[in-house]
């Protein structure tokens, strides 16, 4: 006899990390409710990638929520600012979108509480990444604490759990997880600066991290890169 279904909201951007994260949530036995945010990002192709991933994983509840962050700008992903191509540096790059994960997780928390789920998955990574502050373990821990005092469910003693299963994995380990889960990396999209012919640029931080991870893991990435 099986117990009641477990429900989790998973942030599904369409990138490699979020794809692996969604599959891990399914593997853990959760009914996945996938949330993609259309925030006016330069790399809008990732939204279509999220839809393809949801279909592949047979996620029946996939919501694409509009939240136009171009109104604020402040990032190369939401304003007319050139995407840097010199590689991953020590400073927080201009591709950082102000408070993006805070906003996304707030939406995920709202949906989770509404549907009665108490679990949220996010594919952030604190090792092979561009140094964004809203990917750090301190942020993840802080938001989980915030969820308890920001919701009716939390006020009534229920606990929300924020899962970040890729938090301490290298990009190579994440690529290996994709292979283990039977996922084709080419379904996902990582590039911040898609080219007119549909190719990934191959030079932005996200492309560099993805390619290096695939190479280190010995996994073929059939993504078409301009460089």
Task: Characterize the structure shown.
This protein is of the alpha/beta class. It has one domain: 3-Layer(aba) Sandwich (Rossmann fold). Helix content is 35%, strand content 12%. It has helices spanning 16-27, 45-56, 100-115, 137-149, 152-155, 171-180, 205-217; strands spanning 6-11, 30-38, 61-66, 119-121, 161-163. Strands 3-2-1-4-5 form a five-stranded parallel β-sheet, with helices on both faces. α1 crosses α6 and α6 packs across α7. It is globular. The mean pLDDT is 94.
Number of strands: 5
**Morphology:** globular
Number of domains: 1
Strand coverage percent:
5-15%
Mean of all residue-level pLDDT scores: 94
CATH class: Alpha Beta
Q: Strand count, sense and closure of the main sheet?
A: 5 strands, parallel
- Classification by helices and strands: alpha/beta
Give the strand line-up of the largest sheet. 3-2-1-4-5
Low-confidence stretches: none
Helix content: 25-40%
């Amino acid at each position: 006899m099986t117990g009641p279904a477990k429900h989790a909201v998973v942030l599904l951007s369409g990138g490699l990390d979020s794809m692996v994260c969604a599959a891990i949530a399914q593997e853990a036995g959760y009914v996945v409710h996938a949330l993609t945010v259309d925030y006016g990002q330069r790399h809008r192709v990732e939204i279509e990638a999220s839809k393809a991933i949801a279909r592949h994983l047979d996620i029946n509840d996939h919501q694409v929520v509009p939240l136009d962050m171009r109104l604020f700008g402040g990032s190369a992903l939401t304003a007319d600012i050139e995407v840097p191509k010199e590689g991953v540096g020590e400073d927080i790059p201009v591709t950082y979108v102000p408070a993006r994960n805070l906003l996304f997780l707030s939406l995920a928390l709202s949906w989770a509480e509404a549907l009665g789920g108490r679990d949220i998955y996010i594919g952030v990574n604190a090792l092979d990444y561009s140094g964004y502050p809203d990917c750090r373990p301190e942020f993840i821990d802080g938001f989980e604490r915030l969820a308890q005092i920001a919701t009716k469910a939390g006020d009534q003693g229920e606990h929300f759990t924020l899962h970040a299963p890729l938090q301490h994995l290298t990009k190579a380990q994440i690529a290996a997880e994709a292979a283990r889960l039977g996922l084709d990396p080419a379904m996902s999209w990582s590039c911040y600066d898609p080219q007119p012919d549909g190719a990934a640029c191959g030079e932005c931080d996200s492309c560099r991290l993805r390619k290096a991870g695939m190479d280190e893991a010995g996994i073929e990435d059939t993504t078409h890169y301009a460089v």
